[in-house]
Every structure is written in C-alpha cells, then in structure tokens.
Design brief:
The chain is an all-alpha fold and 200 residues long. 80% of the residues lie in helices and 0% in strands. Keywords: Membrane, Transmembrane, Transmembrane helix.
Length: 200
C-alpha cells in the first residue's frame, strides 16, 4: 500500500489523538503557571508578614524608650518645682535622663530604617522634644548650683518648661498614633489620654 499524499484528509482517530496531546500540554502549562503564581503570592505574603513584624518590634522598642525618658524628664521637672527641692536628688535624676539618651537614639535610628518617612520623622521630633525639656532643666540645675535663686528662676522660666512639656506630649502622641495606623490600618484610632502610660 502506498503512503497517503500530504494533502490527504486526517482520520478522526488521529484528530482525537492530537487533541488529547494538545489538551495535556495546555493543562501542564496552565498548571505550571498557576503553581508559579501561587508561589509568588505566598512569597509576597511571607515577606509582608516579616516586614510587619520587624516594624512592630522597632516601633515598640522606640515607644518604650521614648516613654521611659519622657517619664524621667517629667519627674525631673516635678522635683525641680517641688517644695522639698533637693539639689543632689535632682542631679541624680538628671544623670538618669542623660543615660537614657543613647537608648532613645538607637531606637529612633531603627525606626528611621524601617520607615516610613512620616513615622521616622515623628519619632525624631518626639526625641528632640524630650531632649529640649531635659536640656532646659539641665541648664536650670547648673544655674542653681552656681548660686541663682531657684524661686526666681521658676517664676521667670517655668512657663517655657511647661510649654516644652506640652509639645513633648503632642509629639509622643503623634508618634504612637502613627505607629498604630501603620500596624492596624483598619482600626479607628482613639484619642490618647495624657499621662495614660506615664509611670513614676
């Protein structure tokens, strides 16, 4: 029997076979694409989870350091205003405030790396506000140690320290509210009650 010419019609069995092969190949391609897409989605989800975890840790450490130094600065101002003013006790508390500076700087640096920019900026502003109040009381302590009358100093300068204290609270509130917004974007933020997290 002679072979069929090139333009001879293909019988139904051959067509079915070719269709089966094409279907198998198409199924394999679609399956591979689906697996690759699923793997990419899983990988992206894992990366997002790790980034969120890193941010949470950085934000938490920074908030803890800032609040601790805020509390120490507030206590220092109260001691300076108190009726039972003790120069040695104020100096000891001032040293505690100064020793916390490095921990705050490291924590703010970690937030600057994790970002975003607005959160890093608010952390830096909060740290500077605490430093401003601490620095003012540091200067007062040096002036009193040099012989200046404490009551006269408070009468002329206390208003500025209280303004610094208010700015410090606002900056801290901005930072913590920003952190919550990043970590829990669907949560409605509640106003921060001043002094809620304060410890003595």
């Amino acid at each position: 029997m002679f072979p069929a010419p090139d333009n001879a019609p293909v019988d139904s069995t051959t067509l079915l076979g070719l269709a089966g092969i094409s279907g198998t190949l198409l199924g394999a391609v679609v399956g591979a694409a689906g697996t690759l897409g699923s793997a990419r989605i899983t990988s992206r989800a894992q990366t997002n989870t790790e980034e969120q975890k890193a941010r949470r840790q950085a934000y938490s450490a920074c908030a803890t350091a800032l609040l601790a130094r805020r509390d120490a600065a507030d206590a220092l101002l109260d001691m300076f205003k108190g009726d039972d003013f003790d120069q040695a006790a104020v100096q000891a508390r001032l040293q505690e405030v100064d020793e916390q500076r490095d921990a705050v700087a490291r924590a703010v640096g970690a937030v600057a790396i994790e970002g975003p920019y607005d959160i890093a900026n608010s952390a830096e502003f909060a740290a500077k506000a605490i430093e401003l109040l601490s620095g003012r009381i540091r200067d007062w302590t040096a002036e009193v140690a040099g012989g200046r009358d404490r009551d006269e100093l408070l009468q002329s300068q206390l208003q500025f320290a209280l303004r610094d204290q208010g700015d410090m609270e606002r900056m801290l509130d901005n930072f913590t509210a920003g952190c919550r917004k990043i970590l829990r974007p669907t949560e409605r933020d509640r106003p921060t009650r001043r002094g809620l997290l304060r410890r003595r």
